[in-house]
Fold:
Amino acid sequence: MFGRILLGLALAVAIAIGALVAWQWRGELPPSTASAHSFDPGIVAKGAQLAAIGDCAGCHTTSGGKSYAGGFPVETPFGIIYGPNITPDRDTGIGTWSEEAFRRAMREGVARDGTHLYPAFPYDHFTKLTDGDISALYAFLMTRDPAMRTNRTPQLAFPLNSRIFAASWQLLFLDKGPYRSDPSQSADWNRGAYLVEGLGHCGACHTPRNKLGAEEKHQRFAGGEGENWNAPPLNATSPAPVPWTADQLFAYLKYGFTDQHGFAAGPMQLVSTNLSKAPNADVRAIATYIAAFAGPRDTAGRQRQTDAALAFAQQRALTVNELSRATTGAAPANGASPGGTLFAGACATCHRSGGGLPVSRPVALALSTPVNASRPDNLLRIVLNGIHPPPGRRGPIMPGFSGALTDPQLFALVDYVRTHYSRGPAWANVAAALADVRRKQTPTTEAP
Amino acid sequence: MTVLNVNGKQHEVNADPRTPLLYVLRNDLALNAAKFGCGLGQCGACTVLVDHNPVFSCVTPIAALEGRYIRTVEDLGTVDKPGPVQRAFIEEQAAQCGYCIPGMMMRAQALLEKNAAPSDTQIREALEPNLCRCGTQMRILRAVHRAAKLMTVELQGPLREAQK
Structure:
């Protein structure tokens, strides 16, 4: 009897899988023979700007590797997926992909040979792209230098390593179709929405994901994770003390710095480096769209929050006098906490009122998002490793303190910074967060 | 009163605990190898070792250093008997003005204690935080390679003795 039930179940499962395979089956598309000469230079240039907005190189280039030749490890809760080679190399890249095959990959998440791609490739966003933009991206990629670099197999546990799971995921979560504009909004907002929800795939990091790794659509921009950093919320729950405005977002995205929020760090460095090459109108549109999510809805509320944050920052800024006591060797102020002592000696040289570097001025810490975030992870990461401009670029340098401070000192310092510079509650889980940050920062470099 | 262990010696230091180590080394302990470059943790001239890790002493308050093992260039060798890193820097004539060199040597020492035979890339990555305005970077690179060899040779002596 049980045998029959089992047999019946097995049969049902087999039929279900068969149906799924039939439903999701995509054939191989014929190899193309296109040559670089068949693209209009204007289209290629447009594709270059689009590739910058999409940050394609971010996942499709490994550190020290050739541009777009792949290899960057994208860490997911399910395992590591390596960005593939998307240069036009015919053997190891996408040199044999026709524009039709490229379009299918962008819209449906299926490779030229019919393989279903893992959703680490954000086709759930790219599906919104117009034909013209996909053509431009294709023209841009097909005119890159072909680089021979064999793709690395994803490190996923069984049964996730079966591509049928990518196909099932698509069935459940891939909402295909182009971006539909909202006539009740401005043209600028709609352009921003198209870029943010499509090519920019901002939600891939800034929106939380469900257990199956799909974005929680009803929690758009409520904060997520990207490249082991906390991607802060961009919606009304944003921890930024001064609510983001379109102007501040534009400056941050275009130049990597705003006086009311600070410098781009972590994965946002590359995003802002890329967006510095994008047309101003597009960056402005992105800023307009994102700013509509951030902070209180009403103008008066936003102004109140801004005024309060700026007043608090001014009140908490350390003065030169407090710093000079530290360097001249006078007695410390009564009741100086261990964290405050460390801050005065290690941080205040730059992070004091009027302090700064020859080329830049650090943000008032009371305005900083990591200091005001609900979790200490990003602040810990910055204190441990510092901030360094991307290789070959100029930008502010903050030294890392991983060698200088012991764990108890780090806890004391972070506690002081949080207490002094934020009106948020003390962080309860700093030790666990530090362990997590340390575990995640072991670099997952590519095997030679 | 802060007790600091510098180059294996205990020093009782009467300075504000917020004082960066660099000023205590130079002003209180007369250990002048570590240099004041920028005072902002940007240039690396002040680099010393704390518990085997290179740190910028200009932004490390002594409050953080009680009970920890601090080393400066003075610990690497003497004028009469320079250590392998110092010998290598002399033999490669890696200094022009020389202001950055103590920091470079300490960072090189830290690297070589962890990696006895680093590649060119590994040396470049390790020394990246330290700046040299004169442009002796190529000589510094050669000096670190040479220091690696000198250290290995120095280790081989006692090894051969032990094998006899």
Observations:
- Chain B touches chain A through 27 residues (CB under 8 Å).
- Chain B has five helices and five strands.
- Residues 137-163 of chain B form the longest helix (27 residues).
- The helical segments of chain B are 21-28, 84-91, 101-114, 120-127, 137-163.
